Automatic annotation (TrEMBL):
<protein>
    <recommendedName>
        <fullName>UPF0145 protein FC78_GL001624</fullName>
    </recommendedName>
</protein>
<dbReference type="InterPro" id="IPR035439">
    <property type="entry name" value="UPF0145_dom_sf"/>
</dbReference>
<dbReference type="Pfam" id="PF01906">
    <property type="entry name" value="YbjQ_1"/>
</dbReference>
<comment type="similarity">
    <text>Belongs to the UPF0145 family.</text>
</comment>
<dbReference type="InterPro" id="IPR002765">
    <property type="entry name" value="UPF0145_YbjQ-like"/>
</dbReference>
Length: 108
């Protein structure tokens, strides 16, 4: 199965499907912006408002984390991932770690 075919849901139950639990799956990434964007973000921090460079960083990190979660599910032979959640943390002012995690399941 291709990783893009893996159903990922934040719900505990998938309507119309019975399944067995395979196990925990996750996708993890740590991202950083370049020095120029960090300087721009520093200036924006002074005047206030959305810091688009960091919004882009988190969006990119989220997409990578989900892609890796899906690949982890494929590697385990799963058909779907239920109860998917995100967790994120700052390692430094310019680095963010994003984890996507959930439960891999196989349809009966």
């Amino acid at each position: 199965m291709d990783k893009n075919e893996i159903l990922v849901t934040t719900t505990e139950h998938i309507p119309g499907h019975e399944y067995e639990i395979i196990g925990e799956v996750f996708g993890l990434t740590t991202q950083s912006k370049n020095v120029v964007k960090n300087i721009g973000a520093g200036f924006k921090n002074v005047v206030g408002g959305e810091i688009k460079a960091y919004t882009e960083l988190l969006t990119e990190a989220r997409d990578i984390a989900i892609s890796r979660l899906r690949q982890n599910a494929v590697d385990m032979g799963a058909d779907a991932v239920v109860m998917m959640r995100f967790d994120s943390d700052s390692i430094r002012a310019d680095m963010e770690t994003v984890a996507a995690y959930g439960t891999a399941v196989k349809f009966k």
